[in-house]
Amino acid sequence: MEDDEEEEEEMGPHEIFGIHRKEWIVSYGKNDDDAFYKPTELLPMRHTDGPVLPIYLQPMDTMEVFFVKVAHLTGGLQWSLDVYGDVADSLLELTGPSRAVLLLDEPIFEIDLKVKGKGSSALSEDDKVLCLEYFGYNCIAYRGSSSYAKTKEVTSESCAMEFRFAHIINSVEATTTARIINASCSFSARFSARTTSIGEDVVVLLDSRG
Fold this sequence. Notes:
- InterPro entries: DUF6598.
- This is DUF6598 domain-containing protein.
- This protein is mostly beta strands.
- It has a domain at 56-171 and 185-207.
- It is built from 2 helices and 11 strands.
- Strands 1, 4, 5, 8 and 9 form a 5-stranded antiparallel beta sheet that branches. The protein has a two-stranded antiparallel ribbon with strand order 2-3.
């Protein structure tokens, strides 16, 4: 028993992350290594234009992710960083998920960020791991009747990362459209949405200023 504990303590982040990934592939990917990278087959807005939904459908709990950011840098790192694409500040742009995250099982966040080595224009051995971690949110344990938001901090040898997300009770997925019919050359716009029950946290739908 002690030998097993010592072996686990000696494992680095790559080994621990690799074990987690293999367990996911066995449990959910049917032992297909490529399954982890396959996009979901359930696309957004699939019910916008019909057909009429069955009467037995009902609102369900979902997750909304507000932001992911690097809260602190350590190990001599400073902004700006080349994190496989220029990241000039601490706030990381989210490119997904493209639809609501349904809270049936425990969702898992994975962080795999690397910093390019100096003078390197391609992936190389000089690249430094910024953060290689994962964590889950136990949505099943929550039995409250109100939506709520929470902040999770994850630390690594090179940084501390901050995640802000919300558990939305009895929610539905909606489609929003906006069309600008007349505007000046200097026009800019920012469209956002929020849930009144969880305060001032907002989701930016579109920001023409970048």
